[in-house]
C-alpha cells in the first residue's frame, strides 16, 4: 500500500537531507520519551516505535509509526501513519491514517519528527475511549488503492482528543 | 569653542612641521573662529586622501622623485593663499578639473578671484605633494607591516583560538533548517530564522512557522545578532 507510494516519491532535496540528518542527530542525543527510532539506512523513511504512556488507555501497548519525508521537507509535511495494527482511537483509522491537523493543514516547517511524535502520544494519552472513527469503514474503503492520507480532505472537528 | 579651535590649529601645525617640507602652510593669524569647521574638514579629508594616493604611489614608485621639485614650488606660495585655496578646493572637491573659463566668471569679485585663480594650479600641486606624503607614509606603513609580521611569527598562536570558537557558534539555530542562522531575519512577531528559510516558508504558507501569525515577506526584517 504505502510502499508503492513511497517508491514513486522523489528523493530528498539537499536542504531536506541536511535537515533530516540534524534531526536524527538531535533524536539520538535527546530522544522523545516513549519513542524508539528503528535504525535503517533510509533517511527518507523513519520507522518509530511508540510505547503507550503509563496511566493511559494505551499503557504497555506498542505501535509502529511510519514517517515518510517528502522532497521539500520541511516546507512540506511528512506523511505519518501507523503501521497496522493501528491503535484503537477515535481519530486513527484502521489502515493507520491519523486525523491530526498538524500533519496536514497546520503543518509548520518549524516542526520536527520529534515534535510530531510528542503530539501523537499526547493524542493517544488524552483518549477516553478505545474506538475507531465513526466513518472508519467508509474511509478505509476509499483509501483501498493506497492513497496517502495527505490527499484526504480532513475535517478537524474535534479538539478534545 | 575658541580654545578648541586653537587646539585644532596647533595640531595642524605640528602635523605640517612633521612633514618638514612646508612649515608655513598654515597662517596662525588667518583663521576666524568660524574657520574651525572648515579646517577640521580639510585635515580629515587629507587623511582619507592619503589612503588613495598611497595605493597609487605603489604602482608609481618614481613619484617620490618628482616631489622634490614640487615641494620647492609649494614654499613659494604664500601661506595665506595656500590655506585659502586649499580651503576652497576642499569645499569643492568635484571642481578639481575646473576649466579656466569657469574661473573667469568670478573675476568681478577681487577677493574671490585671487582664490579661484589658484584652484587649478593648486589642485594640481596638492595632488602631487600628497603623493609625496603618501610615499613617506607608505614607507612607515611598510616598516610597521614588517614589524607586525615579525611579531606574528614570534608569537605562538596556533591552537588556543581554534579550540575556543566552536562552543560559541551553536548558540542560536534556525528552527526551520536547524542549522546556524545565516542572514538572520526576524518576523514582525519576533521570531528569527535564516533569510532563505523564512522566504521559502512564506512562499509555501503565509504564516509564521513558530506562532502561525499571518505573515508577508514585507513583514520580515534583517537583524544582526551580537556575535559574542
From TrEMBL, chain A:
MF GO annotations: ATP binding; ubiquitin conjugating enzyme activity
Residues of the active site are: 99 (glycyl thioester intermediate)
| UBC core domain: residues covered | 15-161
Asked whether the keyword Lipoprotein is assigned, the reply is no
Query: Which domain of life does the UniProt lineage start with?
Result: Eukaryota
Keywords in alphabetical order? ATP-binding, Nucleotide-binding, Transferase, Ubl conjugation pathway
Answer whether the UniProt record assigns the keyword Transport to this protein. Answer: no
The protein's matches in InterPro entries, at most eight in alphabetical order, are given as:
Ub_conjugating_enzyme, UBC, UBQ-conjugating_AS, UBQ-conjugating_enzyme/RWD
Per the UniProt entry, the Enzyme Commission number(s) are 2.3.2.23
SMART domains in the record, alphabetically?
A: UBCc
What does it do?
Accepts the ubiquitin from the E1 complex and catalyzes its covalent attachment to other proteins.
Family, as annotated: Belongs to the ubiquitin-conjugating enzyme family.
Q: What is this protein called?
A: E2 ubiquitin-conjugating enzyme
Lineage of this protein's species?
Eukaryota, Viridiplantae, Streptophyta, Embryophyta, Tracheophyta
UniProtKB/TrEMBL annotation, chain B:
RING-type domain sequence ranges: 174-212
Signal peptide per UniProt: none
CC annotations in GO: SUMO-targeted ubiquitin ligase complex
Query: What is the official name of this protein in its record?
Result: LON peptidase N-terminal domain and RING finger protein 2
Q: Which UniProt keywords apply?
A: Metal-binding, Zinc, Zinc-finger
Residues covered by region (Disordered) = 1-20, 145-167
Origin organism of this chain? Prunus yedoensis var. nudiflora
Which InterPro entries has this protein been placed in? SLX8 (IPR049627), Znf_RING (IPR001841), Znf_RING/FYVE/PHD (IPR013083), Znf_RING_CS (IPR017907)
Q: Which GO terms describe its molecular function?
A: SUMO binding; SUMO-ubiquitin ligase activity; ubiquitin protein ligase activity; zinc ion binding
What SUPFAM superfamilies does UniProt report for this protein, alphabetically? RING/U-box
Q: Which GO terms describe its biological process?
A: ubiquitin-dependent protein catabolic process
